[in-house]
Amino acid sequence: MGSSLSRSLDLPSLDRVDTLAQELALLQDKGKRRIAFLGSRHVPVVAIHLVELIARSLAQEGHSIITSGAQGVNAAVIRGVLEVNPDLLTVLLPQSLDRQTSEIRTQLDMVLHLIEKSEHDDLSLPMASSLCNQEIISRCDQLICFAFHDSETLLTSCRSAEDMGKVVSLLFFD
């Protein structure tokens, strides 16, 4: 009995307390933030609506939103922010616009702040996406990521963001 009681009194690790304090401070901060969204291309339909709602709500609060240009989470973020204020949205593509699917290109035509990385056209999509994610993270104060537990590129990006001292909210679909 004594050991279970002592476990219940164990304090969380200091790095987790620091992260929690940082997240709480951001929630209380009324200033505008630069919030990045990263996520999987393959998203459950119900989750698409949640992603759009979160992006729309953050844009309504006046926060700048940055994401990439793929189907799935990125497309949902783009739709949500465009409904509120297109000027708050920046989309950074991993490669040139020509390398994007026709479905997403139609949506990207409405984005005011679109950054293409045509110099990455010769790279594989996973490599170009990884570089893109790093640049997106470098431009934000906070990262919100929607992933699966086996989404290696996204999980690596989240660890990198944490290493850079960014507040990271990682939500899993599975």
Quickly describe the structure:
By secondary structure, the protein is α/β, with parallel strands linked by helices.
Notable traits:
single chain; 174 residues; alpha/beta; Rossmann fold; 6-stranded parallel sheet; 7 helices; 17% strand; disordered N terminus
* Low-pLDDT ranges: 1-9
Number of helices: 7
How far apart the termini lie comes to: 35 Å
- Give the tally of β-strands: 6
What percentage of amino acids are in beta strands? Answer: 15-25%
Q: Specify the structural class.
A: alpha/beta
Explain the overall architecture.
By secondary structure, the chain is of the alpha/beta class. The protein has one domain: Rossmann fold (3-Layer(aba) Sandwich). 48% of the residues lie in helices and 17% in strands. The chain is built from 7 helices and 6 strands. The protein has helices at 2-8, 14-28, 45-60, 73-84, 102-108, 125-138, 152-163, and strands spanning 34-39, 64-67, 89-92, 113-115, 142-147, 167-172. The chain has a 6-stranded parallel β-sheet with strand order 4-3-2-1-5-6, with helices on both faces. Helix 4 links the parallel strand 2 and strand 3. Helix 3 packs parallel to helix 4 (73-84) and helix 6 runs parallel beside helix 7. The longest helix has 16 residues, at 45-60. The protein is globular and about 40 Å long. The relative contact order is 0.16. Residues 1-9 have low confidence and may be disordered.
